[in-house]
Every structure is written in C-alpha cells, then in structure tokens.
C-alpha cells in the first residue's frame, strides 16, 4: 500500500532538485556576465536628438551611440570620440573634424550595414536637426529640443564634407562653447545608410524607434514600459564589451528598485532611496556625483521692489541656506556659492560664500527705504526636479526667514507646470524658486541661459536682469578659446552676480546611484547620466 | 450527463449575457463620452468618430447598440486601451496566461496541502493536532494578503535572499512568447539556458504562489475537516469498522475518496476568492498578470480596459467554476441527477 507520506517526500525531493539543481558553468555565465540596470522610467524614443528627458538620454545616448567628441568623465574636459582630432581656426569660425576610419555601425536583425561610418553620416545627423527642409526633419514631431534651445541653428552656417573622413563646420560667429555643445548627449551620429533603407521601405519613423548607432551596445528588444534589452556591439571601435547582455529593467517605484537591489535582482539602480541602508550593506556601494545643476531663488528685476539691488542683497543675507539644504535636500546637495558647481573648470574657489546675517539684512532694507518691510509673492514650482526636490517646503522656509526681517511672503504654487513656466517667462511673478540642469559642461550654459540680456527676451532669463557689463564679460569669454582667460571672465561675472543678486543660487544637488560590489567600472556622469561602456562584472 | 451539461451551458450563456449588459452599461456610467468609453479611441478625429458611431449603431435604439456591442465582443474586439492605445484583446492575451499560471499553481498547492491537513485534523478530532491545525487555519485565513506579501519579500527576498521579489522570470532569459504560460514556454524554447531559466522561473513563482495559496489552503483545511468528520459519521464507515477493517484501511479505502468529493464541490466557490487575492499579490510581486493590469487601469481611469478586464476575468472565473462542477459530477454520480423537476 502506498503511503501518502512517501508522495510528499518525492514531491519535496523534486522541488529541491528544481531549486538547487544542476548548474552548468556555461549557464552560470549568463547572469555573471550580464548587467541589469533598474531605471526609473521608460524612454520616449531611442534617439536622444529628439528628446530632453534624462531618462531617455540615460537609456540611449551613451549605450547606443557615439558623438564626434565627448567629455572626460573625471574632469569634464573634451576628449576625442568618433573624431580622432579636430582643428579650430584662429578666428574660431571654422572647425574641422577628422573622423576615425574604423567605426562600424550595429549589425541587427533589421539592418545590415555595408560600410563603416564616414562623413555622410555626420552630415546626415546634423542636417536632420538643422535643416528644416531635410526629409527626416519632421519625423517624430520635428522637435530637437537641445539643439533648438542652444541656438545651434543660428550658430552653424553649414556642415561640409571635405572628404570621406573629414567634416567642416562653418560658424556664423566664434563661440567657445560650441565644442561642448557638439559633445552633448543629443549630438549623436546616426547611420545615413539605414535612413536610406527606411525611405525605401517607407518606414522613416522607425529611425527613432529601432535604433542603429555605433555605440558599445546594440538594440535587441524593447517591451513597452517593461524592459529594454541590449547586446554588446562586437565591432565596437573601442573594443567589445565583456558583458553578454545589458538589460534596463524599468521600475518606476523607488521602493521597488531598492527591494530589487537588496534582493540581488538589479545590479545597479537609479535614484536610490534609504542611503544609509545601502551604505551599510556589505555587498552594495552608494555613489554620488554633484550634478551640473543649480536651484535658485530668482527675482523679477523689472518689478518693484526688486528693481532695487539693495533689496535683493538684503534678502540674500536673510536666507539660511544650510537649513534649506538639510530640510529640502536632506543634506544631499552642496551649497551654491556662485552659479556653477565646483566640478566645473570655471569654478573659482576664492569667491567667498554668502553669510547669513539678519542684522545686515535689516540694515540694507533700511538703506533701500523699506524699514517697515514689504509684502511679496514667491512662486514655487509645482513639480519635483533634481535641482529642487521640494520647492513648496523651500518656499515655506524662505517665508519664515524673511518674516524675521519684516518681509511678508505669499506662496504661489497652484499652477500646473507648463502654465507655471509660461507665466514665469511672461514675467507675472515677483520672485520664483526655479533651477537649471546643464545640457553640457561648458559654464556658458549657466551664464548665458540664465542671465544674459538675450535670454531675458526669449524667456529663459526669468529675472529679466540685463546688465551690459555682465553681457560683455560672458561674450568675451565665448570669443576666446584660451581657458585661463575664460576663467577670469567667468570669475568676474560671478562676482558681479554676487553684488547685484538678480538671483540667489541656493544649491547644487547630487545625483546618486547604488550598485552591487561585483560591478566594476565608472558609471555615473555629472553630465549625461550613465555609461555602461567598459563596465564589467565579476 | 447530457441534461447536466445543457443546464451548465444554459447558466453560462445567461450569466455571460448579464455580464455583458453590466459592462455595456458601464460605458454610460463612466464619465465622458459613451462611444469613447466603449472604443477607447481618445485621439480619434471627428471623421473616425463618425465611422465608429456608425459601427456601434449610435443612432439606433439602445437595444441595437447593445447587440452591435455584443457582435464586436464576439469578434474579439474590445476596443483600445485608453492608456496604451493597444487593442484590449492583445493586452488581455498577453497577460491572462500569467494569471492562469499563478492561480492554477496556487490552487493546486492549496489543495495539495490544505486537504490532507484537514483530513489529519478530522482523524485527530478534538485532540491536540486538530486544535493546532484549526488555530493555524484561523491565523492563515485572517492575515491580510498585502501584509503577508510584503512580509514574504522582506524575509525571503531581502533578508535571506532566497527568492526574487518581482516579476515572472529574470529579464536575462529571452523566452519567446508562445503560450504565455512561462514554464511551458521555457520547455518549448530552444534557449541554451533552458534549465537555468526553468529554475529561475520556479524560484520567481514560489513566493507569490505561497501568498496566494495560504488563504484558500486554510479554507480547504476546514472544508476537508468537516467533510471527513461527516464521512466518518456515516453508516458505511461504521459498517466497515464492524467488519474489522483497520483504521488506516477505512480511511484510505472508504473515507478519503468520499470526503475529497465533498471538498471539490466547494473548490469552484473558492476560486473567485483566490482570484481576488491573486490580483493584490500580482501588484505586490509585480507579476505581469491581468490582475495587476486591471488595478493599474483603475488607477489610470482606463475605462475600456476596466470593462474588458472585468468581462475576461469574470468569464475566466466562471469557466473554472463550470470545469470544477464537471469534475465533481464525474466523480459523484449523484450530482448528475437532475435536482429539479422529476425525481
């Protein structure tokens, strides 16, 4: 007679066999040689030219593509990529790039390239963005936010092919931030041959959804909203990656990412929470980098009483920045002294930091003729951004700070984000809490965008502060390629800001990432998120 | 058996009709335009909307609108998801297999453990094992699923690292979608990592299955206990006892089979409960099934998906119900007798 107990034993034996079962060496190598990165959201497209979201750029720019030049991850200086060298004429208006000859495009199930990268591909990639009559320009909406925001259309007169491996950019005027712009995440090089194949197949929009690039990984599979699978590019010009697969596991909830990291389901996660827990864990590493951004408190200098520099200066004394850093950024940021973070080459360590002094603030207010104080509105952004994770709380802290010097603050935060931005750019506010994340590491990206006279017209300078002396300084800095001269100009510009205070820089936030200790290589970038090139696992 | 089958079929048809009426009326009850709620075409141009209105007979009376809706349903057209703009039928086909896999394994596990333990309790009636089992059953039944799920992740995924916390299989394994049932797809695939993938999928299955199975298992325990007690109290058991059969012979040869039949009758009823638990579990374990999809659709106010998901899930529950009824009828000839009418 069969006893049921026996069947149980059999069942458990089977279960244990299934669970612990025979691991062959070959099968072990799949998980040991692959990386799962838990990212925070799905990409909107697979072409970083057409988007501005950091999530998409993280998922595509460094993994799938290359640019002509790129930034050294440690000091953000410019280094060669697809262009092995380049030459800038003395007047700064003509820049010639000499391309590498051995750069291969991805071989995939949907495209088999017949040739290596050449000048035609570079021309195609830039003309698609610059030339409104280009057949690929209107594909995917015809928007190239980064290029359009950095005014490259007005700067670049033409892109010419000199020979198969030489490309020349003609600029309308000298601009020393041009190289940094070209090295930005959006200036990727696409394949012209692939684009032509798609025209023949009448499937042009696929260029942004089924990507072909020259980067270290090639596209394998995308399951909408769930995961992206990349495979190494065997003919990558820097050498094939040791990884077998790179998977982006899209996990929007931050607790979900943390759980997966702790349970070993993710090797690397984006935007970790519970920093202490991760730092204490023996198998995990928490990394951070001060991002190229700034959160600031800006004044509308075209309105009373902020057209008076003394008032602005008075407020700058009254704001307790360390308290804000603790409460809003939970200490995960650096106090901003000038406009630019200290990882930028233009940062000047000699510039003194602003002191917190209620008495000084009161004195200045009396000097400005507001001995009884005044009331003002403060617009706090309704969304979370890396440069300001909680603008409303920050606004409340500032409200309490300013109350001490007799200034009454009304907080405005009920507008929806796009409406908020529109109203701000139209100058409806008196003061605002906002910020800026740089597109590339050139310091001009902070100065010109946030405070120049021309950007006061386009709306990105929400202080409407237009100072001739300041504009001259940043123009001169752009006209020279001598980095030491530029440093001096920018240092003077920062001092000018710290005298006039069109805005009070508050903090540069840090960007965090956590990974398992068996993942080696440098991943985190101050600019442009992450890069899995050269990353290994043991 | 024929009459029995016809009866079930009849019941199925009428329940389905009622369900479709409910789902159809939802498109009026949800806020917004009824036609858009029904088709999910939020970005349609006025011309496209006119064509759709024609297709769904918007100009005719309510009855013909309903019949054209039924007609679309029969052709597998449940409109488009308002959130993803994919056909609901595709979305459902992609997700239902994962739910079937989770719930059927959980049901088997619940029966496999619940019923014998329940028998055990009955055999040791009013002794320590019985009291212990009853107490455990009570606790198991009272634990909220979401709490149990999170606790399981905390202990077995995070602290001990034995089992994964999310998903159906590690994303590293590329398993082509054939049946949608992960374990079967793995066996069908020609991946060089087949065995490892199978192991990985099993490891992913264990925690959610335990969480889903716990509450039904405790119910099966109590049902099995009651059924066994009833059987042990019958005359034929007393007769067997009087014939001098040993206790184990009585249990294995006579009591068990008859008690199991009684329990099976109630399995169908428990299945709806099991699906509810599975929906919550799918959310906690990021299981890519229809339950999670339905809950997300509710969050996103994806009305077309809510209607479609409702119909598919209820149909699924109902079909399982009927299958279990058939199993019961096959095992127990008495159940096939027409209960109403002639006797």
TrEMBL record, chain A:
One GO MF term = peptide transmembrane transporter activity
Quote any Pfam family the record assigns.
Answer: SBP_bac_5
Query: What are the annotated GO cellular component locations?
Result: ATP-binding cassette (ABC) transporter complex; outer membrane-bounded periplasmic space
Q: Cite the Solute-binding protein family domain residue spans from the record.
A: 78-455
In terms of Gene3D superfamilies, this protein maps to: Dipeptide-binding Protein, Domain 1, Dipeptide-binding Protein, Domain 3, Periplasmic binding protein-like II
Q: Which GO terms describe its biological process?
A: dipeptide transport
* Keyword tags: Signal
What protein family does this chain belong to? Belongs to the bacterial solute-binding protein 5 family.
Name assigned to this protein = ABC transporter substrate-binding protein
Q: Which organism is it from?
A: Cognaticolwellia beringensis
TrEMBL record, chain B:
Where is it localised? Cell inner membrane; Cell membrane
Q: Name one Pfam family in it.
A: BPD_transp_1
In terms of superkingdom, the source organism counts as: Bacteria
Task: Specify the ABC transmembrane type-1 domain's residue ranges.
Answer: 96-328
Which membrane topology term applies here? Multi-pass membrane protein
Q: Where are the transmembrane segments?
A: 12-30, 105-125, 132-158, 205-224, 271-290, 310-331
Q: Which CDD domains match?
A: TM_PBP2
- GO CC annotations, alphabetized: plasma membrane
Alphabetically, the GO molecular function entries are: dipeptide transmembrane transporter activity
Q: Quote the SUPFAM superfamilies the UniProt record gives.
A: MetI-like (SSF161098)
Q: What is its main location?
A: membrane
Per the record's keyword annotation, is Membrane included, yes or no? yes
Q: Which InterPro entries match?
A: BPD_transp_1_N, MetI-like, MetI-like_sf
Supply the alphabetized keyword list.
Cell inner membrane, Cell membrane, Membrane, Transmembrane, Transmembrane helix, Transport
Protein family membership = Belongs to the binding-protein-dependent transport system permease family. OppBC subfamily.
Q: What is the protein's name according to its record?
A: Peptide ABC transporter permease
Q: Which organism does this sequence originate in?
A: Cognaticolwellia beringensis
| Organismal lineage | Bacteria, Pseudomonadati, Pseudomonadota, Gammaproteobacteria, Alteromonadales
């Amino acid at each position: 007679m069969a006893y049921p107990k026996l069947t149980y034993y059999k069942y458990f034996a089977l279960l244990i066999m299934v669970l612990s079962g025979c691991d062959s060496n070959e099968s072990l190598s799949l998980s040991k040689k692959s990386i799962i990165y838990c990212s925070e959201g799905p990409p909107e497209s697979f072409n970083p030219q057409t988007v501005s979201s950091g999530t998409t750029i993280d998922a595509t720019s460094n993994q799938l593509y290359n640019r002509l030049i790129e930034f050294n991850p440690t000091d953000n200086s410019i280094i060669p990529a697809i262009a092995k060298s380049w030459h800038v004429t003395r007047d700064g208006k003509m820049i010639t790039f000499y391309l590498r000859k051995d750069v291969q495009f991805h071989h995939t199930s949907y495209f088999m390239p017949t040739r290596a990268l050449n000048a035609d591909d570079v021309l195609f990639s830039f003309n698609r963005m610059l030339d409104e009559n280009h057949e690929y320009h209107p594909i995917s909406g015809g928007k190239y936010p980064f290029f359009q925001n950095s005014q490259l259309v007005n700067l670049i007169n033409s892109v010419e092919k000199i020979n198969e491996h030489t490309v020349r950019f003609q600029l309308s005027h000298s601009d020393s931030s041009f190289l940094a712009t070209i090295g930005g995440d959006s200036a990727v090089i696409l394949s012209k041959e692939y684009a032509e194949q798609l025209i023949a197949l009448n499937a042009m929009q696929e260029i942004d959804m089924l990507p072909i690039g020259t980067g270290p990984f090639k596209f394998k599979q995308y399951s909408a909203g769930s995961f992206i699978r990349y495979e190494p590019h065997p003919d990558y010009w820097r050498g094939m990656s040791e990884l077998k697969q790179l998977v982006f596991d899209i996990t929007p909830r931050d607790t979900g990412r943390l759980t997966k990291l702790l349970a070993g389901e993710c090797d690397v996660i984006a935007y970790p929470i519970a920093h202490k827990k991760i730092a204490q864990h023996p198998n995990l590493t928490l990394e951070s980098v001060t991002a190229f951004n700034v959160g600031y408190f800006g004044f509308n200098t075209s309105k009373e009483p902020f057209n008076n520099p003394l008032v602005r200066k008075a407020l700058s004394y009254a704001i307790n920045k360390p308290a804000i850093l603790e409460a809003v950024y939970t200490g995960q940021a650096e106090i901003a002294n000038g406009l630019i973070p200290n990882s930028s080459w233009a940062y000047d360590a000699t510039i003194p930091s602003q002191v917190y002094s209620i008495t000084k603030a009161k004195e200045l207010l009396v000097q400005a003729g507001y001995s009884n104080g005044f009331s003002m509105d403060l617009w706090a952004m309704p969304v979370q951004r890396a440069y300001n994770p909680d603008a409303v709380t920050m606004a409340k802290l500032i409200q309490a700070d300013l109350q001490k010097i007799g200034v009454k603050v009304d907080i405005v935060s009920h507008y929806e984000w796009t409406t908020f931005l529109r109203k701000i750019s139209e100058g409806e506010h008196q003061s605002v809490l906002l910020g800026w994340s740089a597109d590339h590491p050139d310091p001009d990206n902070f100065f010109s965008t946030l405070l120049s006279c021309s950007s006061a017209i386009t709306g990105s300078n929400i202080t409407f502060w237009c100072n001739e002396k300041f504009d001259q300084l940043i123009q001169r800095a752009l006209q020279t390629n001598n980095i030491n001269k530029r440093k001096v100009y920018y240092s003077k510009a920062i001092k000018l800001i710290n005298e006039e205070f069109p805005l009070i820089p508050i903090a540069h936030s840090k960007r965090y990432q956590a990974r398992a200790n068996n993942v080696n290589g440098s991943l985190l970038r101050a600019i442009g998120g992450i890069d899995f090139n050269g990353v290994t696992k043991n | 058996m024929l009459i029995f089958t016809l009866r079930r079929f009849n019941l199925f048809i009428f329940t389905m009709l009622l369900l479709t009426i409910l789902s159809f009326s939802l498109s009026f009850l949800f806020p917004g335009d009824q036609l858009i709620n029904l088709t999910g075409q939020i970005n349609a141009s006025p011309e496209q909307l006119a064509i759709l209105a024609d297709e769904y007979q918007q100009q005719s009376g309510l009855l013909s609108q309903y019949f054209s809706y039924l007609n679309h349903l029969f052709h597998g057209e449940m409109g488009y998801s308002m959130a993803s703009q994919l056909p609901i039928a595709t979305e459902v086909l992609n997700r239902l297999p994962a739910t079937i896999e989770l719930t059927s394994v959980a049901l088997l596990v619940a029966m496999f453990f619940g019923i014998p333990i329940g028998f055990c309790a009955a055999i040791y009636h009013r002794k320590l094992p019985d009291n212990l089992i009853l107490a455990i059953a009570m606790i198991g039944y009272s634990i909220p699923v979401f709490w149990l799920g999170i606790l399981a992740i905390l202990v077995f995924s995070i602290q001990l690292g034995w089992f994964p916390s999310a998903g159906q299989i590690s994303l590293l394994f590329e398993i082509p979608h054939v049946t949608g049932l992960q374990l079967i797809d793995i066996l069908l695939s020609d991946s060089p990592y087949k065995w490892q993938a199978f192991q990985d999928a099993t490891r992913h299955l264990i925690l959610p299955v335990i969480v889903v199975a716990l509450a039904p298992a405790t119910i099966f325990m109590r049902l099995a206990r009651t059924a066994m007690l009833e059987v042990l109290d019958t005359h034929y058991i007393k007769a067997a006892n009087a014939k001098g059969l040993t206790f184990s012979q009585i249990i294995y040869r006579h009591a068990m089979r008859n008690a199991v039949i009684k329990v099976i009758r109630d399995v169908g009823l428990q299945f709806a409960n099991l699906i509810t638990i599975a929906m919550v579990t799918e959310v906690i374990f990021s299981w890519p099934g229809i339950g999670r999809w339905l809950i997300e659709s509710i969050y996103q106010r994806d009305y077309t998906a809510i209607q479609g998901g409702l119909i598919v899930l209820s149909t699924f529950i109902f079909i399982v119900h009927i299958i279990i009824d058939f199993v019961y009828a096959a095992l127990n000839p008495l159940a096939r007798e027409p209960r109403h009418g002639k006797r």
